[in-house]
Specification:
- There is one protein chain.
- The protein is mainly α.
- It is 42% helix and 7% strand.
- The chain has seven helices and four strands.
- A two-stranded antiparallel sheet has the order 1-2. It has a two-stranded antiparallel ribbon with strand order 3-4.
- The longest helix is centred in the middle third of the chain and has 15 residues.
- It is globular.
- The chain starts with 9 loop residues before the first strand and ends in an 18-residue tail after the last strand.
Length: 174
């Protein structure tokens, strides 16, 4: 596109999508709120996010790369997924991410792309401005204990560099 810088190669991405989902969600809710999701949508999409708080969904999206959690967060946004994706692109514009575009909240299919440079800016912004993101993404694993609303979920981080490679603080790897 016209706004792309010629010296930065763009690629399809999932990690930037997850981080921007969380940034957009931060402007929306109290994290102890339950995400009120339509049962028909949950059944249609075979999702295991019924009875989750927004904070639970953030953990699922950031630690386990849960696409169902990402989708559920977008559905909770006023106007649903369409408005949420608009908010993600507005945040990308605010951060001056010139080589980044979001087409859906999951980060695959469609016209989702970014550059390594833009992902570095996004990651730095998230880690320095949102302590909750910073504390979540550095976890190797976590447990969402069962309660009256959902079963237990063991969340494992796919980032094999955590605790192995010096200077790795988290965020997503792919």
């Amino acid at each position: 596109t016209e706004t792309m810088l010629p010296n930065w190669r763009t690629i399809g991405m999932l990690c930037g999508t997850t981080v921007l989902i969380v940034l957009a969600a931060f402007g929306r809710s109290l994290f102890q709120d339950f995400a009120p999701l339509d049962d028909d949508l949950l059944i249609t999409h075979n999702l295991a996010v019924r009875g989750m708080t927004m904070e639970n969904l953030l953990y699922g999206a950031l630690i386990h790369s849960g696409n169902d959690a990402a989708w559920a967060i977008s559905e909770y946004y006023p106007g649903g997924e369409t408005k949420f994706v608009e908010a993600m692109n507005e945040k990308a514009k605010f951060l001056d991410l010139k080589n980044t575009n979001f087409d859906n909240p999951q980060g695959f299919d469609g016209n989702n792309y970014s550059s390594a440079y833009d992902l570095a800016i996004l990651s730095h912004y998230a880690l320095t401005n949102y302590p909750l993101i910073n504390s979540i993404v550095k976890r190797d694993k976590d447990l969402l204990e069962n309660n009256l609303n959902h079963k237990q979920f063991d969340l494992y981080n796919w980032n094999g560099l955590l605790g192995v490679y010096p200077g790795v603080f988290g965020i997503k790897i792919g």
